[in-house]
Design goal:
By secondary structure, the protein is an alpha/beta fold. The chain has one domain (2-161): Rossmann fold (3-Layer(aba) Sandwich). Helix content is 28%, strand content 17%. The protein has helices spanning 29-38, 60-69, 88-102, 128-139; strands at 2-3, 18-23, 43-46, 73-76, 107-111, 144-148, 154-155. A hairpin with a 5-residue loop joins strand 6 (144-148) and strand 7 (154-155).
């Protein structure tokens, strides 16, 4: 499913060097949209295995329409999901697709976990955006991965140094 933004801001190749991540968590769509707009996100790659949520505003078709209404593109990339173990070729194709989109549009990847890191004594990857996808994106040349937090701040860290189950 691909939905492209209505109004595209001029993009450059440099965009592929920077990718944002975000988790929808339990926030309202308005709060989620405010975060995307704060960072001028033009395209959202949904990296959940299944584009479904107990929060109806984050179900794929609903989310795609809400984002489109606000000038943000959307594509679901189930091959990048963390709930099922993807085939390596499929996963690589999904990561390449994220980079392809990010080379043209300011892009965020999204899953359901709002916090990228756990709050344990030793921090761990709380989602596959950190534990699986970020190291792959960095290996393919993405220099900066900024994790958008629910409070509106971003954090950046060496994802390969964080404990992960992925």
């Amino acid at each position: 499913m691909k939905h492209y933004p209505k109004n595209r801001i001029g993009a450059t190749f440099e965009n592929a060097r920077q990718i944002y991540t975000i988790g929808h968590g339990r926030q309202s769509f308005a709060d989620f949209l405010n975060l995307l707009q704060k960072y001028r996100i033009e395209f959202l790659c949904d990296v959940r295995s299944v584009a479904r949520s107990r929060w109806p505003q984050f179900n794929g078709l609903v989310l795609a329409e809400l984002l489109s209404d606000n000038g943000i593109g959307y594509e679901h990339l189930p091959e990048t999901g963390g709930k099922t173990k993807p085939k390596l070729d499929d996963l690589a194709r999904g990561v390449d697709r994220i980079i392809e989109i990010a080379s043209e549009l300011r892009t965020a990847i999204m899953c359901s976990e709002s916090q990228p890191l756990s709050v344990h004594k030793t921090q761990r990857a709380n989602c596959h955006r950190v534990g699986m996808l970020a190291p792959m994106l960095r290996a393919k040349g993405v220099d900066q991965i900024l994790h958008i937090l629910p409070n509106g701040e971003t954090i950046e860290f060496d994802e390969s140094a964080v404990l992960s189950i992925w």
